[in-house]
Amino acid sequence: MLPSLTASFLLGLCAGSYLPFFPVSVSVLLAAAAMLLTLCERAAGIERRWAASVYGAMLAGVIYWSAATPPVASPHPLPPRRDTVASEVTGRILTAVQHAPGRQTAVVEVEQADPAPAGIATLTRVRVVWREPDQILLQGDRVRFRAKVHPPTGTLNPGGFDYAGYLERQGIDAVATVTGPSGVQTIESGGRSWAWAGWHKIDEWRSVIRQAASQTLSQPSLGIFLGMIIGERGSLHPDVQEWFMTTGTVHLLSISGSHLGLVAIVGVWVVRRAVLALPAAILLAVTRVLTPLRIAVLVTWPLVFLYALLAGAEVATVRALVMITLGFLTLWLGYERHARHALALAALLIVVHDPRALYDLSFQLSFLSVLAIIHALPSPADGEEERRGAGRLGTWLVFVRDACLVSAAVTLATLPLVALYFNQIQWMGLLTNLLAVPVTGVILVPLGLLSALWTVAASSAQLPLASLQEALFGWFVAALRWCAQWPGSAWHVAAPALPAMVVFYLGLWLAIRKGISRRWSMAGAAVVLGLIGWWGWSPRSGLDGDHWRVTFLDVGQGDSALLELPDGTTVLVDGGARYERFDMGRSVIGPFLWNRGIRHLDHVIGTHPQLDHVGGLIWIVRHIHVGRYWSSGTTRDEQFAVDLQRALQEARVSERAGVRGQELLGEGPCRLKILNPLANESTPVAQRPSGALLNNRSIVSRLECGSHAVLFAGDIEVDGLRRLGQDGRDPVTVLKVPHHGSRSSLDAAWIHDVHPLYAVVSVGRANSYGHPVQAVLDAYAEQHSVVTRTDQDGAIWVTARLSSREITVTRMRDLMLEPVVRGTALWQDEQRNWRRALRLLHDMHPLPLLHS
């Protein structure tokens, strides 16, 4: 009964989360559920009490979500200009401080902020990044820092990662960055407060382990050790993370259900075997008080609890601890057969504490994985009986079979979620997890945890057994790298849509449901296999030889535009920036390409070698097949430029310097012509080029499709604009405004000549440059141009046909759901939300059931 009630409650929470946007539809859903249960009660003989309880649980979920979560505001409010006045913030560090080379990140509960930051109604928590610190911050410390505090911002793209929403779910209202010694001052140590002394001490232990590991381990072993033992992934190289992702073993890097579960399983098995190995007289005396299994639970749980604390007690870790604690409780009480009830109770406790956990990736993956394991494995009693009569060889064969079943079940159950969040089908995880999970759980984690505990207990500056761990982690990474280099190992797909995921899980339920007819089971299996095949294929659609599309992606303070032409040709102009912990190529452009079914780019244009234009192209060149790369011909010795050249060489992509007069697409339904730089400017310069020189050597290109023209102006400034040929001054339908709307690119005469119907400004939210300046916006307003901005509108896409003069410009912000205001015409407002949702599905994917 408990699993049914919990599932109904979770369904109610889900419905309640959409209530502010679709009040009429949710009401209709509740009425339909009541009617369905009534019909089932009469036709199938379901007990009225059960039906009433299930419906009551769903209704309770709707009510609880509405009461426990903050009121829904308009998503992604327009950002104010970044406050130029720094605030002095005083507060206490709430969570374990995260470390990475050259920086510390802390979440501070604000006690006072003077002056109050602009654009933030209530300042409660600030996520502060301290670069080049001169002291170690610890949880519970009262600190003071002075910085420009602003609301968290992110990019707004179809299907893209919402960084602002991610921080909002963590309760963080603002972010700040400080740099240099004394950037953050400790007012009071957390060890002096009785409420924070314990957490402060644990964070101090984490610091001891981190310092000892840093002195005795080298990369990549250091990054993996810190990630697996104390939950810090800041020292892990991005390439190593990519190998874990490709091989389907990325869950081993985050301390959640996988690690705590492995420690629990290994601990219970070792302690239970040790107790059973005691002399008969001692064993008999011990078992009169406690069974070996209860002793194992009693010894193992404190170890799991300590591991969770050392990991920083993050949300995902605490959830896993709750699940394992309830699992241990069922073992203690002898209710092993009621694992589903323990899982349901754990889910109930977590979502009652925070209903928003329902939409957290770790929550979804953890519970689906455990549920799949419960269904895949036989009950403990049946398994024990099977192994008892199988002999030693048979026991090992049963173990291998169960391991394969678990790996297959978990991979299958989580496949839609992994495809949704990571745009991958991690088929290799079926194989790699068979070895990686036992090696991690039996060798790497126990050995690392024991060495960490010894370091803390002995206050040692050296990590014991460091050379052994260095070798083991090195072999582990080498094996992952070898597997990740297999052809097709990284199988990227379009993210599945919610309707398709519902159909998938319904088919899976029919396929594994006991007592159901064979016909229905076969139908369910066919649905599952069909959807997996379609997702794996992820074909391009909408190629009819007539439609074309240009998408200006929101990549923050940078540029990136994708051209999709009627004959299937694809061109990417710029790729945004690559930051220390966020790569626009990996996080924005790559997922957008996969969602469009694009695995090959015919041309990639790097307008000029500046980080905000070509930084993200490094990842794109390494992971997307590129036909030809076009550059401005100017070379630089900065690291990102060196990495880009290396990526082009490794991918064997031919590079050409673009000059005026070259036609990238001389044949076909559309033409793409380069207008800048001049031929004599495409040679490398001896001295370090200035910013103005780089900007004026930007590749400027003009796309002509049917009766429309689109001009991509890069970062060209006034001097460069005045020397453009006639093609660069002819009127256009759409203009990518040069240099993010900077004053250095303001030429009123040129704007008058090109006279764009639509002007697109690619610019970052609340950027420190003040882009776009008001004078630039006024100049386009004088030409009656419709100005769109990625900082306010998100991604912007232009669609048209060769056979028509009509053109459509769509802004991502216009397709965001808006809360329905009470007291207005509810159904009319809700209809607008439905139109927004359907329009987004239609514009991004012509088959909305199969993609999102």
Give a summary of the structure in a few sentences.
With 852 residues, the chain is α/β, with parallel strands linked by helices. A hairpin with an 8-residue loop joins strand 10 (547-552) and strand 11 (561-564). Helix 1 (2-18) packs across helix 3 and helix 8 (257-276) runs parallel beside helix 11.
List keywords for this structure.
48% helix, eight-stranded mixed sheet, 852 residues, globular, alpha/beta
Describe it.
By secondary structure, the chain is α/β, with parallel strands linked by helices. It is built from 29 helices and 24 strands. The strands form four sheets. The protein has an eight-stranded mixed β-sheet, with helices on one face. Strands 1, 2, 3, 4, 5, 6 and 7 form a seven-stranded mixed β-sheet that branches. The chain has a seven-stranded mixed β-sheet with strand order 16-17-18-19-20-21-22. A hairpin with a 5-residue loop joins strand 11 (about 560-565) and strand 12. Helix 5 crosses helix 16 and helix 15 (about 390-420) packs across helix 16. The model is unreliable at about 845-850 (pLDDT under 50).
